[in-house]
Fold this protein.
Amino acid sequence: MEVIQADDKKHVVSGDRAQDELADYPWVIRTPLKLCVDFISSGFRLVRPYAPQLIPLAVFVSAIPALLFFSFSSGWFVWRSIAVGWEIPLYLQYGDGVSPYTSVSLPALVSRQAYDISLHLQVPTNPSNIDLGNFMVDITITSGNNHTVATSRRTALVFPKFSTPLSIIWNKPGMAELNIPMLDNVEFGTVSAFARVEIGRRDHWKTIRSGEGRELSVSSAMLRGVVVSRKERRAK
């Protein structure tokens, strides 16, 4: 009891000293300062009995940012450690006497990780592409030592573009998007691989017509690989 009374006495003395110091200021400054001091003092008096319970709570609240930081860092590390999807642009070669083609080096792969690989084309809906009719898409994936890992051929077709008043919002005028699945659930067994992609008809329509529609015109091409989870692999 004596300790508490001594503390209260010190608080009263310090309060009187603060009041004397505030009296030296003009009333325009003194009144807001007095209100702030009284408010802070009242808050301390109300909180003081609950200090033993509030200190652990304050420590816990201050630790939340650190916990969030470590959680985010751990998630980022795991995300960087596991296989993720990838996509690379393709720059087709024309005029070499064969169908448009290109060879690219695939991004770093995860060995024994399954991928779904697809080709995404943006092509003009001009008469030449439409008259070409069905064409083939050929992909061959090889390892660093030139060993064939996977190969696939798919057929595709460019349909005429039927525009609507709202289609200009999400499509470029005169363009069509072709999404062609090439390989499903394929494992490379290596961390480095190369892909050769060929698009078009190998016969070039040489025996038909006068030369039009022999090659597919492509505005942009993208090769995409999507990681197949173990759950999806069991479903397939």
Residues 1-13 have pLDDT under 50 and may be disordered. The first helix runs from residue 2 to 22.
